[in-house]
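To: structure subgroup
Subject: Chain for Friday's discussion

All,

I'm putting the inputs and outputs inline so they're searchable in the archive.
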Amino acid sequence: MQHVETAKKLLQWNAKNLVASSDLKKSEIGHYFADTFLVLANGKRYEANRDNYFDFLEEFRATIRTISYELGDFVTDQMSVVIPMKAHIVRTDGSIENFEAILILKFNRDSKIVLWQELYLRI
């Protein structure tokens, strides 16, 4: 159950910090992610660490005014959480994007994320 709570807090953190108007802090990435981790997004593979992930997030959030989620039922085992969801993004230019997504998070023994895997489809 601890990983479910961590996943929920991470998505709340995303909604607050992955927007253009936030003051994103690199140190906060370590609250959720291991020193090194793997990101798999729609078939692309990224070896990540807190530094290069911060750089990615800085670029990612630059045109986002708001991001919100509608979460489905979480599926869990001891080290993983799978979250079906809808993501809603409003860009700084007022355009809107909606996605259906599946997010898979895998945790290490320190309850830090070592895998962020997502499949998303614009709807």
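Points worth raising on Friday:
The mean pLDDT is 96.
Strands lie at 33-41, 44-49, 64-71, 75-76, 80-91, 96-107, 113-122.

D.
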